[in-house]
Automatic annotation (TrEMBL), chains A, B:
<dbReference type="InterPro" id="IPR036588">
    <property type="entry name" value="CobH/CbiC_sf"/>
</dbReference>
<comment type="similarity">
    <text>Belongs to the CobH/CbiC family.</text>
</comment>
<feature type="domain" description="Cobalamin biosynthesis precorrin-8X methylmutase CobH/CbiC">
    <location>
        <begin position="11"/>
        <end position="207"/>
    </location>
</feature>
<keyword id="KW-0413">Isomerase</keyword>
<keyword id="KW-0169">Cobalamin biosynthesis</keyword>
<dbReference type="Pfam" id="PF02570">
    <property type="entry name" value="CbiC"/>
</dbReference>
<dbReference type="InterPro" id="IPR003722">
    <property type="entry name" value="Cbl_synth_CobH/CbiC"/>
</dbReference>
<comment type="pathway">
    <text>Cofactor biosynthesis; adenosylcobalamin biosynthesis.</text>
</comment>
<protein>
    <submittedName>
        <fullName>Precorrin-8X methylmutase</fullName>
    </submittedName>
</protein>
Length: 211, 211
């Protein structure tokens, strides 16, 4: 529809999801019931139907993530953009908080000292939160690699990983690593993802809980 | 490349842009010199080469945007995610500031009173800043429509519009409206865009100035 239409503000999102549902049907894509709202919200945030083909979920992932949030899990992300996008009001209603350590001076200092990325250091610092953790990685594959190393070394076992960094260097491989662990995950295979996608996945889960 | 490689943190971005340049060449896409870094940074942030085909620039747009920032223009965006992503350090070095009025109580109140979106109201409130303004719209087509109406009514003439809302309702039409005005623009035609894309465009321009 290329003509401007009058749509009430509260109707815009509803109508958008109707168009997404319709076009998924035209493409003969049938989503699993429990994954549907997550994938549709990612398409809503990107206008990119490719996500319907590339998003990967571990067994019963969405319900596990809901259960974690219901029990007060915190969310740790690797970008301040995702932090800004995550619905902290609903999260807070269950006792959770969202964190991003990327802009901390301590993060920059530690990264420089160990010649690694601030994102990798951010993952280590998360251990200090002392709560069940959902990691939402929207930018840095190095964050996923560090999580994998920590899981393997049993230094930190995340309760859940949303692994959707975007990019061209090590992104594909880092996502595959995460899918090899026993940690429940939502990952977008391939190069695509981003802080907007990370926030959209968190919010899809939060909105279902917030109803 | 699907194998994990060791890449120094400072090399990741450089290597990413090399891959993007290479793949653009493979696709026989030749970008205009002045638009190149903007389009490449959008591809870097989205891993989506479609942007090379759909991004539209008014005459000499990138240089005009640079000149505005050099002279202390402020940036107004319709999402807190874009606000979080914009490099405010470089912007501030030229005297500029970045603003987002979406979360203001006053914005919500005014939107409710006039049955419009907070994004549309945000555009109106920008007039109070009293500085040359670059609008960076990454989410709401209603923001672009309101900008168009204000331009037509000569209520507010922005110095520059970055028009990259994403979505399914009125997004395509709202972008076309902006391209009909005399205001310099960078727009992504079609449904795609987003707060990440809006921030990437601002940053591409800021990074070139920051060198």
């Amino acid at each position: 529809m290329n003509e401007l239409q009058f749509v009430l503000p509260e109707e815009i999102e509803k109508q958008s999801f109707e168009i997404i549902s319709e076009e998924l049907k035209e493409r003969n894509i049938l989503l699993k019931k429990d994954q549907e709202m997550v994938i549709k919200r990612v398409i809503h945030t990107s206008a990119d139907f490719e996500y319907a083909d590339t998003m990967a979920f571990s067994e019963d992932a969405v319900n596990k993530a809901k259960e974690l949030i219901r029990n007060g899990a915190h969310i740790v992300t690797d970008t301040n953009m995702a932090l800004a996008g995550i619905n902290k009001k609903i999260l807070g209603g269950f006792g959770g908080e969202a964190h991003c350590f990327m802009a901390w001076e301590r993060t920059a200092k530690l990264a420089k000292e160990s010649n690694t990325t601030r994102a990798a250091v951010s993952m280590e610092l998360a251990g200090e939160i002392g709560k069940p953790l959902i990691f939402a990685v929207g930018n840095a594959p190095t964050a996923l690699v560090r999580l994998y190393e920590m899981i393997e070394a049993k230094v930190l076992i995340p309760e859940f990983i949303i692994g959707v960094p975007v990019g061209f260097v090590n992104v594909v491989a880092a996502k595959e690593l995460i899918m090899r662990t026993k940690v429940p995950y939502i990952v977008n295979r391939g190069r695509k993802g981003g802080s907007n996608v990370a926030a959209a996945i968190c919010n899809a889960i939060l909105y279902e809980l917030g109803r």
